[in-house]
Amino acid sequence: ASVAGVPLVLLVLAIGETPRHYLTNLALIAALASAGWLHGLERARDDRRWAVAVVALVAIGVVVALRTPGTPARVGIVIAVALALGAAWLTSRDTRRMVVVGLVTLLAAGSIVFVSAASKPLGTDRAREAAVTEVSTWIEANVPAGDTVVLSPLLAYELALKIRDDHTPLRIRPAVGIVDAQLPMGLSYYGKNTVEVPLAIDTALRNVDQLDVYGAELLDPLMAEHRPTLWIDGAFLSPGEAPTSTRAMLDAATGTEAAQEWTFPMDDEDLVITAWTIDPATIAFDTATTYADVTTIEALIRLLEADGGGQSAATLADRIVVTPPDPRGPALLAQLRALATGTGPASPAPSGSPAEAVP
Q1: Per-residue DSSP letters for 234-246?
Q2: pLDDT band of 53, cuts 50, 70, 90
Q3: CB-side exposure of 336: number of CA atoms within 13 Å?
Q4: What per-residue confidence (pLDDT) applies to 265?
Q5: What is the predicted pLDDT for the residue at 316?
Q6: Edge-to-edge strand order for the sheet containing 175-179?
Q7: Who has greater pLDDT, 34 or 204?
Q8: What is the rounded CA–CA span in Å between residue 155 and residue 132?
């Protein structure tokens, strides 16, 4: 059952989703896999080959846990101890030994829970909680009741719950874009229409073949229909890091003004929340410019080159303003522009900077 569950894991990774949509599947797999492990341990009592196989599988599981990014080593070690003790318990015929090992196994299981809770990034949780409290309080005090407030993806749900009694929350997130080199801008909305006027482009959080795109053809109708008077945007930024492409897009728009900014320090970076007031009668985005960081430009080069290149690459390169500014920007834009003719300079070194995360 564990092996049969591998396609499910690959599916989750491929579509960039968390496993929350597959809880039933995962529960069935866990139940069947547990039965298989118990059967294997029972066989290991009498067959040395089964014992070797079980030990090898446990060792592989521990190595994978220890080498997985973001997994505390302590959790992997405790899991290894729990599995080893569980194997000893099931393969032993000594009643007293079984009781002792069973108690130790329960202690190890409790340790997993404790270590997992202790390893949570409490600084991030506290910063998010403080941000929701302060920003929602500011909105209540400064935005007329009944007005519509745009919420970017970060903290959108938490803020919406706080302000929904007196204000109308409108969550606006970038649309999923895919590369099609034959289109005028080289981009289309996933399963939908052509991207006609890209205002800001970012790399997608998990999917290497997709991009996050704010397009004027999507934002303009939303602004006209809902007539918001405030836009709240948040981002995780390293101390001193320049603004994101979304902030640059809002700063360049007509009819918007940065009204307030909050910075909530965390362990290695800051949670920065910015509020822009919006004049519904005059709001207009800068349709001549596309804002993107160097990581996004690298992704555009990779995807457009894989799709054969074309004039759309040069069209994008002529529109893009590198945000935040980066000395590698001109070379990357030249490489992107060169895809229009199929020849260009050697690829510059990768940026190494991760794309910003969206909850």
Answers
A1: EEEE-TTPPPPHH
A2: confident
A3: 30
A4: 87
A5: 94
A6: 187-189, 175-179, 211-215, 198-203, 290-292, 320-322
A7: 204
A8: 7
Please report which confidence band the pLDDT of residue 357 belongs to, taking 50, 70 and 90 as the band edges.
Answer: very low
Q: Give me the chain's average pLDDT, please.
A: 79
Q: Point out which residues pair with 232 in neighbouring strands.
A: 151, 275
Q: What are the Cα distances from residue 36, in Å, to 11, 58, 182?
A: 23, 14, 51
Q: Residues 6 or more apart from 180 whose CB is under 8 A from it? A: 186, 187, 188, 307
CA distances from 71 to 7, 74, 95, 111, 326 (A): 22, 9, 35, 15, 32
Q: Which two tokens stand for residue 292?
A: 């993107």
Alpha-helical runs (H) found in 282-344:
294-306, 311-319, 329-338
What number of other Cβ atoms are within 10 A of residue 64's Cβ?
11
Residue with tokens 């410019």: 289
